[in-house]
Amino acid sequence: MTARRPSRTPARSTSVERVSIALPETDGPFVRPAATHPAEPRWGHAEGLQVGLSPLPGPRGLLRVYTPYLDQPRERMINFVAVEPVPAGETTRGFSELEHSALDDAPGKRFWSADDPGDATPRPETEPARGTVETIDGVQHLRVFVLVEPFANGADVHLRLTFRADRPHEVAIATYARETSVPLAHAIVTATMGNYARLRELHLADRVVTPAELWPGFSGHGFAPHARFGLDELVRDDAGAVVLAATPDEADPVNVTYADDVVPGWHFQGLRATQYWRAADPHPDIQALVNARASYWASESPIPGGAAFENIELLEPFTQGRELVLGVDPLT
Description:
About 0% of the residues lie in helices and about 35% in strands. It is mainly beta. The protein folds into two domains: about 15-190, no CATH class; about 195-330, no CATH class. The strands form three sheets. Strands 7, 8, 9, 10, 11, 13, 14, 16, 17, 18 and 21 form an eleven-stranded antiparallel beta sheet that branches. The longest helix is centred in the middle third of the chain and has 4 residues, at about 195.
């Protein structure tokens, strides 16, 4: 893989323009975009984790992950998720956040939503699909597809987001390739903003590792190289799924001292939480990848306490419809 690309801007606390834009509606255990347009593209649990798309604050080409149950303002994101496909026989990723759109030449690939992924026609950002609710094995599920414009490397992929009513702190993200796509080695979904929560403890099967241990003396304003961990190093749950969890190392991350030049958007708000990926039936070649930063993106402002993990992901050979679960649980 290449060295990690630049990531998002830190201004997460700004508000989306709301002139006549309808807010999501509560539908049983879920929130879904309003039936009237223009509407805010946001889906998820009424009392739990939610996912949004542009034009909500933040760069294009990223899923926005919200956790208001952590006592955070409605617009504050706990993390972003990028889509980074790798064609077969190659090692270089496509970058949904960084690539310019072929549709309007603006930064970031365009994401839009659909109830039926068969129609790849781009939709206006403020005309989101509402998603579909169905009951499976007695549990309500909300599902919506996120379509992604094709990448410069020939990858043509889309996502399916699934929210289960009995798992309010999770979203399942499945990846698909269209017939128009080049063959893929990987379709990576990566959590890209561990620096905001200052995640410094990565929980492996037999130990906890930190950036200070993985990259001794690391400093500067770039990304540390990826550290990789194979299946035998990863935590397995009772069902055999791989669980890759990261936690902050600070008892009180809100009341820390920031350098004067750290913009307010990087100041942590809310409660501490565990952020994790879960992969059922892991491929034998699965790997966990993490990197780190010692300064906040787009600045030379130091992260309080030193380097923290930034990108956290699970890497597997591409399989059509493969589903990974992203979760954010309060630390009690």
